[in-house]
């Protein structure tokens, strides 16, 4: 089974705080755990609905965003892997309403669109180099290699939350969130060399190694959150506990093709292999862990200082999609027990702690300035993925991200208008190459010896949010 060379695709798809609307978002309206004394319709901590108690509607989103992921020498010397993307992304539509009851009860709803990743890249080699054993193909061969990868991830959700006061200082709230996670993951390579058979052969034999893995799926689930808020003059505290994502339904498709032709692992003994399958209607189950967020805001003079921390539990390795034990390696041997392990899409997560710092300052009576910073650590760590395991890894980013927000909020009687600049950056010195066109040989199935290279991601965007007080 080790003769089926693994395909791997890397990008920033292993983070919890990539979206601007999260426990540490701060600049995005409502993206707080403790009371920010500011505009917001759907608060991440539902207990803050009881503190706000307003009827409002909001439309918020990233109006324009550009992103680049660059892997230096990703498939060999000078052969960088680069993915560029520009997008216009409406992110949220939300509203809130307060019932005038003896104990005021506030409800909020939202539809949220979260594009997490768009990664698409390709690279090619066309050279003359010594690829095959000189015992049967002396000298340099004509060599052509090609690699492509695509990993697109986005989520859509609906949120319903409510909050009410327990006392003049305490408030409590509850939130129900439905989430649909979608991923389309494609990766493929071809690596081919022409035998040196002499000038009399017009069309020489080809030594070929190629593989393709294509998976697309959706997974729907729900999670519950309970929040608590505390008010004491200039001090504001909040706590939010969120359940793991409870699976509701999901379906996916896997297509895979692997071919080895005339590979001579032992000189004089050509080896050939074909493995091909397409499986549809597979059960898909994407998971998210239990997490706890806490926030503290302090009012000072003309502004507020905020700190938020969120802890995410670890998750043991599991399969997002497990294929059936159907025909894969051909010809059929009558035993297909290895198929699920070879083609599974797996995921695993370490526990981590993200931290956010924010600061507001009243620039004018109606204008407040914002600055915020947050960590966004990769939940699979920064270590090289364990490619000795069978199957494919859904999320294998190898860098941490850091986000910076700069902006201002214009506050009027009937509305709030917020605009700002969003920046994020992440880099690593230990990015594993998916393959290496520098040294393809038969003993490595013509994919080369992968090394560790530099990689980085940078994103810049403009966010605009409008809140109308009804």
Total helices: the number is 2
Low-confidence stretches: 5-12
**Outline:** elongated
What is the average of the pLDDT values? Answer: 89
Q: Tell me the domain tally.
A: 1
CATH superfamily: Outer membrane protein transport protein (OMPP1/FadL/TodX)
CATH topology: Porin
Share of residues in strands: over 45%
The end-to-end span amounts to 63 Å
Bin the helical content.
under 10%
**Cross-sheet strand order for the largest sheet:** 1-2-3-4-5-6-7-10-11-15-16-18-19-20
Secondary-structure arrangement, i.e. CATH architecture:
Beta Barrel
Helix and strand succession?
HEEEEEEEEEEEEEHEEEEEEE
Verbal overview:
By secondary structure, this protein is mainly β. The chain has two helices and 20 strands. The chain has one domain: Porin (Beta Barrel). A 14-stranded antiparallel beta barrel has the order 1-2-3-4-5-6-7-10-11-15-16-18-19-20. The longest helix is centred in the N-terminal third of the chain and has 5 residues, at 48-52. The protein starts with 47 loop residues before the first helix and ends with a strand. It comes from Chitinophaga parva. This is Aromatic hydrocarbon degradation protein.
């Amino acid at each position: 089974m080790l003769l089926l060379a693994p395909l791997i695709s890397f990008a920033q798809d292993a983070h919890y705080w990539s979206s601007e609307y999260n426990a540490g978002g701060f600049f995005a309206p409502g993206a707080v755990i403790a009371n920010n004394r500011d505009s917001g319709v759907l608060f991440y901590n539902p207990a803050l609905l009881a503190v706000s108690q307003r009827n409002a509607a909001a439309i918020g989103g990233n109006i324009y965003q550009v992103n680049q992921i660059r892997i230096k020498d990703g498939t060999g010397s000078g052969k960088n892997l680069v993915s560029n993307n520009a997008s216009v992304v409406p992110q949220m539509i939300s509203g809130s309403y307060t019932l005038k009851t003896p104990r005021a009860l506030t409800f909020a709803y939202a539809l949220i669109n979260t594009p997490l990743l768009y990664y698409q890249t390709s690279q090619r080699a066309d050279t003359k180099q010594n690829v095959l054993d000189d015992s049967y193909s002396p000298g340099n061969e004509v060599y052509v290699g090609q690699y492509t990868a695509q990993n697109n991830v986005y989520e859509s959700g609906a949120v319903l939350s409510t909050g009410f006061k327990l006392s003049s200082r305490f408030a409590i709230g509850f939130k129900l969130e439905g989430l649909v996670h979608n991923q389309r993951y494609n990766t493929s390579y071809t690596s081919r060399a022409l035998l040196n058979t002499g000038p009399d052969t017009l069309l020489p034999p080809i030594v070929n190694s190629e593989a393709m893995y294509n998976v697309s799926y959706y997974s729907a689930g729900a999670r519950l959150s309970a929040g608590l808020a505390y008010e004491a003059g200039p001090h504001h505290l909040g706590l939010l506990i969120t359940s793991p994502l409870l699976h509701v339904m999901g379906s996916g498709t896997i297509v895979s093709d692997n071919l080895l032709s005339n590979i001579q692992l032992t000189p004089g003994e050509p080896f050939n292999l074909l493995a091909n399958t397409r499986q549809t209607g597979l059960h898909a189950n994407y998971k998210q862990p239990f997490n706890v967020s806490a926030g503290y805001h302090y009012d000072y003079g003309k502004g507020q200082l905020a700190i938020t921390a969120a802890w995410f539990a670890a998750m043991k390795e599991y399969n997002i999609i497990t294929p059936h034990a159907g025909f894969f390696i051909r010809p059929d041997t009558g035993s297909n027990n290895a198929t699920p392990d070879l083609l599974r899409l797996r995921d695993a997560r370490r526990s981590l702690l993200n931290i956010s710092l924010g600061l507001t300052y009243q620039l004018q009576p109606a204008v407040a300035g914002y600055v915020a910073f947050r960590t966004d650590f990769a939940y699979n760590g920064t270590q090289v993925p364990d490619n000795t395991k069978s199957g494919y890894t859904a999320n294998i980013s190898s860098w941490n991200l850091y986000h910076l927000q700069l902006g201002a909020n214009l506050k009027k009687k009937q509305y709030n208008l917020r605009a700002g600049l969003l920046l994020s950056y992440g880099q690593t010195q230990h990015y594993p190459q998916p393959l290496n066109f520098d040294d393809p040989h038969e003993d490595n199935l013509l994919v080369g010896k992968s090394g560790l290279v530099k990689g980085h991601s940078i994103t810049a965007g403009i966010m605009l949010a409008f809140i109308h007080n009804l």
